[in-house]
């Protein structure tokens, strides 16, 4: 990532180009469980392809486009910077979204959240069942490829459901802080559920890692 501005006590600081040159390449994160750990809800073949092929491709392409962007910045070529942004958004979003997604799932998942997150869900959606129904409906309704999200609206201090197209990252495109993402690209379910997205969405609730979602919620409230 290459934020050119950082904000400290209201001051606008330009990051030196040297820091762009020496930046670390993005890498594919390890899964916190085996490929087959989420069976029968998500099978091992899907998880292996999804992680080692699809996510890896986003990471590789992100590294390539960042190199090109770095060159465009060094040359002061604004036209090239602008033309690279859709590819950056797609692959950067793909990397961000999947990095969250793997941690949102767990072989010990399912059930319902506890504590502050559950209180917030009840406050903002009426009940857990109502929340689950709404997020499922939004995820089913994504046209083509995309994601269903539970996010936190920091300005309003409340939970919010949103859908994003393709690999648009939630925070970068809506401002909501991502807590729980549901991938509804066909590569996330087709081998097991064919074109019946609602069956996949019904199954995924059995492996949602509420501890992870809760810790994300606690972090963004600090």
TrEMBL record:
Q: Where is the Manganese/iron superoxide dismutase N-terminal domain?
A: 25-106
Start and end of every Manganese/iron superoxide dismutase C-terminal domain? 113-216
Record-listed Mn(2+) binding positions:
50, 98, 183, 187
Under which EC number(s) is this enzyme classified?
Answer: 1.15.1.1
Output the superkingdom of the source species: Eukaryota
Q: Catalysed reaction(s)?
A: 2 superoxide + 2 H(+) = H2O2 + O2
Q: Name one GO cellular component term.
A: mitochondrial matrix
Annotated keywords: Manganese, Metal-binding, Mitochondrion, Nitration, Oxidoreductase
Q: Which cofactor does it need?
A: Mn(2+)
PROSITE patterns, A to Z: SOD_MN
Q: GO molecular function: any one? A: superoxide dismutase activity
Known SUPFAM superfamilies for this protein? Answer: Fe,Mn superoxide dismutase (SOD), C-terminal domain (SSF54719), Fe,Mn superoxide dismutase (SOD), N-terminal domain (SSF46609)
Q: Which Pfam families match?
A: Sod_Fe_C, Sod_Fe_N
Q: Where in the cell is it found?
A: Mitochondrion matrix
How it assembles, according to the record, is: Homotetramer.
Instruction: Name the family the entry cites.
Output: Belongs to the iron/manganese superoxide dismutase family.
Q: Say what the protein does.
A: Destroys radicals which are normally produced within the cells and which are toxic to biological systems.
Name the chain's protein.
Superoxide dismutase
Kindly list the organism's lineage.
Eukaryota, Metazoa, Chordata, Craniata, Vertebrata
